[in-house]
Amino acid sequence: MSQHSDEMAVSSGQTTASGRFRFRITGMTCAGCAAGLQRRLNNDHRVDSATVSITTEIATVDSEQAGEADLIQLIEEHGFSAGRIGTEDAEPDAEQPPSAEQLWKRRAFLGMGLWLPLEALHWAALANQWHPERLPWLMLTGSAVILLVAGPGFLKSAWQAARRGTSNMDTLISLGALTAFLTSTGSLLLDLGWPLYFTEAAGLLGIVSTGHWIEARAGKQAGSASAELLRLQPHQCELKQQDGSFVFQPAALIRPGQQLRVRPGTRIAVDGTVLEGSSDVDESIVTGESKLSGKSPGTRVIAGSLNTTGSLLIEAATSGSRTTVHELAELVEQAQSRPAPVQRLADRVAAVFVPAVLLIAAITAGAWAIAGQTQTGVICAVTVLIISCPCALGLATPVAVSVGIAAASRRGMLVRSAEALERLGQATRIVFDKTGTLTAGRPLLEKLTVEPQFRSDEVLQLAASVEQNSEHPVASAIVTEALDRKLELTPVTDFAAQPGFGVSGVVAGKSIKVFQHPQAGAAIEIDGIQAAVFTFSDRLRPDAVAAVRQLHNLRLIAEMLSGDHKDSAVAIANRVGIPEQHVFAEMLPRQKVEHLREAGPLTIMVGDGLNDAAAIAESRLGITMTSATDAARAASAVVITGDRVSSIADLIRLSRSSLRVIRQNLLFAVIYNAAAIPAAALGLLGEHGPLWAAAAMGLSDLTVIGNSLRLQRLLRQTDQHTAE
Q1: Biggest CA pair distance of the chain
Q2: Do 536 and 475 contact (CB within 8 A), yes or no?
Q3: Which range in 27-31, 34-38, 541-545 is most confidently predicted, on average pLDDT?
Q4: Is residue 506 over pLDDT 90?
Q5: 307 near 264, Cβ under 8 Å?
Q6: How far, in Å, CA of 274 to CA of 508, rounded?
Q7: Which position among 141, 235, 477, 703 has the lowest Cβ density within 10 Å, counted as fewest Cβ atoms?
Q8: Cβ neighbours of residue 204 under 8 Å, at least 6 residues apart?
Q9: Tell me: domain 234-322, CATH 2.70.150.10, correct?
């Protein structure tokens, strides 16, 4: 894998040529916060595009007009804190601000730790008639403490939204808790005789804080693929000093050109080149395969790979903070941060949902007041505010997307965006380029037809001798066959290569020409006499037949495009199981693009060459292998790092599973809100409705999260089964 190829060019958080910035966001309490911040960033005229992920707590902003300080100020104006991430000069152990998980854990423990004893005392005192005149004041004091401890996270967010003339999900929670608390306080002070809801107000904050803590923890777990990758790169390495000794050094401080020792059983800290030693290295972090790769002086090694047998001395090719591992992790983070099309619909619904709920709550209170039951109206309105919080709707997609993209990365498949993951699950057709995709792209000598007056080995030896100076694939096939037959190559003089024709030279005093042949692949002339013709065939990838069969089993229509002539293309298609009517041969790059345009938006294009780049980009579902050209990889939506075409079927199954869970989550969230709001407005939850509403809202969030994590467990079990 090229460490400097276009698809791995990820910003480090500073301004780049593309104006891309990446920030760690703190202060987001739920998916609605992320959606709201993303919407506000995109509404700023200085921002070209922005994505904000609640699962990774990262905002990626593209802007040519605003600098880093401007964007941080813009984010802080909306009530959140931002710090740049991924900078080259960042301290490896720099103190990080508390994450959303840590903040909500603290609030949950404090809120629940105070509320549960207060609730127990409340019911015990009522049952035993302990100081009934003092109990309400004790409840007021206890709930006020909880409001001060667990409430600021909600109240601050709601207040900042109100200052901007907007609302968010915390608006509903804050209004619900404050209304219950203030109504009860007023009733107590004015001796109105209404039921008191101090414990309900306190319980609401404790329960919702606990729900947010579990939500943040699950989101962090679902979006931890990048962290898992980074854990594979060691923090310390052995740096060679000028006097030849070795000292331990933080890997993040390594710079290109420095030399490192890698002991057996340890992981390689940076990308580099072997200077001394030989060993077998497990590169499954990039390839997705557990087979070992032999390393010796001059070969490349990849950060995060596991050195198994011998000791190596390597020269660093990258800095310790810009290795392949970091680039892979950032690709995964970016993919998890980009919303899927179905998520955009959920975000639009959530944007109008909160104002609609506020209106419904006001109507509920007014209708009950008109009916002469003001007290019931207040309680029902509070219940509506709490139970309507659309957190489940906001969580339905991002958690499942994070799980799917993380599972793909563990399998050696880099999915660039949530949109790609969703569309892959909907795909109905897959189009393969032939050479380098279904085939290895390296022709083999299939047949050598020799004229009677010549001997086969003599002809092959002369042809290989003149071709040994050529880089053409046909030359490689001839030389490989000669070496396999253990023929000794002879030095060539007067060598000349003519593009589009062939090569010529003098070998052992004989004039040799190897040139293109219209019926076969190539022919050879010895002293002006045609001595033989060479017929070549392209070798199939080992897993090509199985890959096409699996895709047919998934009910995808498989097609093949090729610039080769019809007979060769059909012969390859027959071998892999693609029907002749789905073979399109002798196609120019422009014709491939037109074919993909006509095939529709749910068509996958799999290619590897420079001439496939336009077709891959046109499909918007392009897949390339690691061996593909930089242009093809840059245009693709997915890169198969393991170079296994059979991985595509695994990717389709994974995408369909993720899409199925997303639809289940959205369906549940919609049904929940559709049923809960009328029940709350009509008073069906009773006088303790606010408390039941808080529990029901938390349960809806946990159901959506649990369904997504169920997918995660199933996919991990599949990984373990495959490994066995």
Answers
A1: 121
A2: no
A3: 541-545
A4: yes
A5: yes
A6: 39
A7: 141
A8: 173, 176, 177, 180, 386, 690, 691, 693, 694
A9: yes
Lowest-confidence region among 148-162, 276-290, 490-504, 515-529: 276-290
Q: Would you place residue 546 in the very low, low, confident or very high pLDDT band (cuts 50, 70, 90)?
A: very high
Write the CATH number of the domain with boundaries 6-84. Answer: 3.30.70.100
Angle at 404 between CA 402 and CA 406, to 5 degrees: 65
Q: Are 237 and 263 in contact (CB under 8 A)?
A: no
Q: CATH topology for 440-540? A: Calcium-transporting ATPase, cytoplasmic domain N (3.40.1110)
Alpha-carbon distance 657 to 426, whole Å? 11
> With contact defined as beta carbons under 8 Å apart, do 573 and 580 qualify?
yes
CB 197 within 8 Å of CB 379: yes
And the tokens for 347?
A: 């975000």
* DSSP assignment letter at 431: E
Non-local (6+) Cβ contacts of 199 within 8 A are 115, 118, 119, 122, 139, 142, 143, 691
In eight-state DSSP terms, residue 448 is E
Q: Which residue has the higher pLDDT, 274 or 170?
A: 274
Helix (H, G, I), strand (E, B) or coil at 27: coil
Token pair belonging to 564 = 């080769």
405-439+542-647 CATH:
3.40.50.1000
Q: How many residues does the chain have?
A: 724
Q: In what order do the strands lie in the sheet with 413-415?
A: 413-415, 638-640, 622-625, 603-606, 429-433, 557-561, 583-584
Instruction: Specify the range with the lowest mean pLDDT, choosing from 309-318, 393-402, 418-427, 430-439.
Output: 393-402
pLDDT in tens, 253-285: 889 999 999 998 888 988 899 999 988 888 766
**Most confidently modeled of 212-226, 274-288, 391-405, 659-673?**
659-673
What is the structure's pLDDT at 262?
92
| DSSP secondary structure, 560-588, as one string | EE-SS-HHHHHHHHHHHT--GGGEE-S--
Give which of 576, 568, 544, 172 is closest to 357, Cα–Cα: 172
Contact 554, 652 (CB under 8 A): yes
